[in-house]
Amino acid sequence: MKKARDFMIEVPHFKHDEKVTKVRSVLRDAFIREAYVHDGKGRLLGYVDITGVLRVPATRSDVTIEGFVKEVTPATPDDSVEKVVKLIRMNGTDSVPVVDEQERVIGGVRLPDIFPVIASRHSLDGKVADYMSRDVISCDAEDTVQKIYNLIVESGYSAIPVMKKRRLVGIISRSDLLRDGRWRPAREGPAKTKVENVMTTPVITVSPGDELQQAAGIMVKHDISRLPVLDGDRLAGILDRHDVLKAVPQEA
Fold first, then answer.
1. Which residues of 31-56 are buried (b: 16+ CB within 10 A; e: fewer)?
2. Residue ranges of domains in the chain
3. Are 206 and 218 in contact, with CB atoms under 8 Å apart?
4. pTM of the predicted model, to two decimals?
5. Does domain 128-245 correspond to CATH entry 3.10.580.10?
């Protein structure tokens, strides 16, 4: 039975008084959502996410991450994959820090890395409609990327469906916005770039009546975090990895 140590990777972690500008740069370059924060001696204090640090203007170079630290419950190297899933659900994060006996950060486990194991190991009973989120935040293909940048920062979602004349035409993700050469915030580049010039298309979708197990398999195959759910031509919901985790029996 695989443990947390089998999926542990080196995850960025910073001293509590590091500057926001530095942390933001690292998260952008690595295309990751979270970094862990320690007390200067390696002991875990919590984490910061990119949604929080992106809110700080680039001109505020004196701001530290101390005011953005959130609580997080860590895993140990010997915790099971199911325990890691439980912690990710509890923390509401895309990863969980792994600590040693002295609570020092020694790595992290990312949801995308263990998701294929969970999807194959467990019977995910039910339909997509049973687990999808029905209140979908979407955007228009004609919207500017500056507007959607703000929307992603405020919502915390990793990707947002793109609509045109009430039909789904693409999806725009945090990675699309932050990828080198594709776009920069208005203060760093053009403010009038349209979403349709940056979005990913065609879109991989599922239907409300599809089996959850099938949808999870699609996520694994294409390594995507959010699946728009179409009922005919209508955008009926969205399914992400965290929704799928709700179908996994949780370890006591």
1. ebbbbbbbeeeeebbbbbbbbbbbeb
2. 4-120, 128-245
3. yes
4. 0.83
5. yes
Six-digit token pair at 63?
Answer: 């701001």
- Percentage of residues in the chain having pLDDT higher than 90: 63
- Residue 81 is predicted with a pLDDT of 92
- Compare 148 and 31 and report the one with higher pLDDT: 148
Tokens 């004349």, located at residue: 165
pLDDT at position 240: 95
Which tens digits make up the pLDDT trace of 170-189? 999 877 776 634 445 444 44
Look-up: residue for tokens 């298309």? Answer: 201
Phi-psi region of 181 (alpha: psi -120 to 50; beta: other; left: phi over 0): left
Using the structure block, give the residue that is written with the tokens 């370890």.
251
Domain 4-120 in CATH 3.40.50.2300? The answer is no
Cα dihedral value 104, 6, 89, 131, nearest 10: 170
Q: Map tokens 């507007």 to a residue.
A: 147
Phi-psi region of 126 (alpha: psi -120 to 50; beta: other; left: phi over 0): left
d(CA 93, CA 50): 12
